[in-house]
Design goal:
Layout lengths: L1 E2 L3 H10 L8 H5 L2 E5 L4 E3 L7 E7 L2 E6 L5 E7 L3 E3 L1 H6 L6 E4 L3 E7 H7 L4 H27 L2 H13 L11 E2 L3 H8 L3 H13 L3 E4 L2 E4 L2 H8 L6
Antiparallel strand pairs: 1-2, 2-9, 3-8, 4-7, 4-9, 5-6, 5-8, 10-12, 11-12
Helix pairs in contact: 6-9, 7-8
């Protein structure tokens, strides 16, 4: 996490995502722009929540850990997305873990300024309501997806999500083979079964293992298997 001290870039993000129509001038004056590197944790489940994060560039992975210790992917999110909104309203700790899939830019604002300048702002509150209700629909669909769809579909969707960022054409991600056990856990399958599916994808020319990484060779082929990228 590193602060970006570039007023022009900050203003560009405000204008690009029309944040001035959501956040009033006083809220915007207390915002700060930060960069997160690929793979960096933005916040972790159970941590104390103090900031509202506004995703303005890149893609993040959101996952939850159950009481039984299982981690499950909920979604991948491009801009514009909020992190810490539910926690702000409920006054609770961070609900889910959020990780940068590609290089990410986030605008942060401390809860104290939201309470002071946004608590009675109907435009901001309506935006918050829309975002929060959408999240609960996504969470319900994602958990059902992990239970109902075969591993082939889940893995195809996962690989598409971690390997590409539609908002950044320069980003071509790859999956380390060292993290395959984590991948199996996140999409809700066994490591052995995951390897069988990867071998199947390799034979079909969809992916390739090379120098410790799993590379996507046939993006369109994976899209056909995933049907629609449910994780996003």
């Amino acid at each position: 996490m590193k602060e970006i001290r570039d007023p022009d870039q900050f203003v560009q993000y405000i204008q690009k995502h029309q944040l001035e129509s959501i956040f009033n001038d006083k809220l915007i004056s207390y915002m700060t722009l930060y960069r997160f590197d690929q793979g960096e944790l933005i916040c972790s489940q159970g941590d104390s929540s103090e900031y509202l994060y506004i995703l303005v560039k890149g893609k993040v992975k959101i996952y939850t850990t159950t009481a039984e210790g299982r981690a499950l992917i909920l979604s991948f999110k491009p801009p514009l997305e909020l992190i810490g909104d539910v926690e702000y309203v409920q006054g609770i700790d961070i609900i889910n873990t959020v990780e940068a899939v590609s290089p990410v830019h986030m605008i942060l604002i401390h809860y104290q300024w939201i309470k002071k300048f946004g608590h009675n702002d109907p435009v901001f509150l309506n935006f918050l309501l829309e975002i929060i209700t959408r999240k609960f629909c996504v969470k319900s669909n994602s958990l059902s997806f992990n239970l109902l769809y075969p591993v082939e579909v889940r893995l195809a969707s996962y690989l598409l999500s971690v390997s590409f960022d539609e908002s950044d054409n320069q980003f071509k991600g790859q999956l380390s083979t060292l993290s395959l056990k984590d991948t199996a856990n996140l999409i809700g399958t066994s490591y052995r079964h995951l390897n069988r599916v990867i071998q199947k994808f390799s034979k079909e020319g969809l992916v390739e293992r090379k120098k410790g990484f799993l590379h996507v060779k046939n993006r369109e082929g994976l899209k056909e298997i995933a049907d629609h990228n449910i994780y996003e």
